[in-house]
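Q: Predict the assembly, please.
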Amino acid sequence: MSNRKDINIKNIQKRLLAHRQEVMDDTDASEESRQPVELDQTSVGRLSRMDALQGQAMALETDRRRHVELQHIDAALKLIDEGEYGYCQICDEEIPVKRLDIDPTASVCIDCASK
Ligand SMILES: [Zn+2]
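A: Predicted assembly structure:
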């Protein structure tokens, strides 16, 4: 299959790569908040241990979301490489340009996504 002519693949690819970089940069920045929770109260400061644990759980959740996001971005980039970008991966229909514009990683049409 070859990529659709009615969408600007180059532009979408650029957006995906830029977004990918952003997510990667964020991941580096959050490295510190993922360190194991210290039991030593002095290093925790006024935060209770419970708050610290909660913060860590949130950081892990953010990490998990970033991981999923990266997977979506990589999947979209792969589809571009294969010339299958912009087609619903379930029913093969063309995904509306508007939808791709809002979410360049969309790989299924709205009908299939809501099923
Ligand atoms: Zn579909």
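The mean pLDDT is 88. Residues 88, 90-91, 93, 108-109, 111-112 surround zinc ion (CB under 6 Å).
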